[in-house]
Amino acid sequence: MRNRKVVLLPKAQNILAEFGENIKLARLRRKLSATQIADRADISRPTLASIEKGSSGVAMGAYVQVLFVLGLEKDLLKVATDDILGRKLQDAKLLVKKRAPKKQVKGKE
């Protein structure tokens, strides 16, 4: 299986960059070095640097490990909890189109 690089839209990349910056600030507020965090999260220092830059090439698991080391893992549970659009769609009771029935193949029933 080939590795494919994820290409993000600029707005999404900006959000990821801000996320990485927030992780870096959390580390600095705790007065922890990059080496300490990398060792505790069982990742390399370059991977931590990529996380702090908001790189899309880093596995989500590595981001979670760093958040866990910083004591911020429960912040991930806040993602999509306030789904305003989804709730509006649900309240409007919009019907989702159903798939067309499967075509019958002659000779098979």
Can you walk me through this structure?
By secondary structure, the protein is mainly α. The protein has helices spanning 10-29, 34-41, 45-53, 60-69, 84-91. The longest helix is centred in the N-terminal third of the chain and has 20 residues, at 10-29. It is elongated and about 70 Å long. The relative contact order is 0.11. The model has no long low-confidence stretch (mean pLDDT 89).
Tell me briefly what this model is.
The protein contains 5 helices and no strands. With 109 residues, it is mainly α.
Highlighted features:
single chain; 109 residues; mainly alpha
Beta-strand fraction estimate: under 5%
Largest β sheet strand count, sense and barrel closure:
none
The secondary-structure element order is HHHHH
The low-confidence runs, each spanning 5 or more residues with pLDDT under 50, are none
Q: What is the terminal separation in angstroms?
A: 38 Å
Layout of secondary structure:
Elements: H1 10-29, H2 34-41, H3 45-53, H4 60-69, H5 84-91
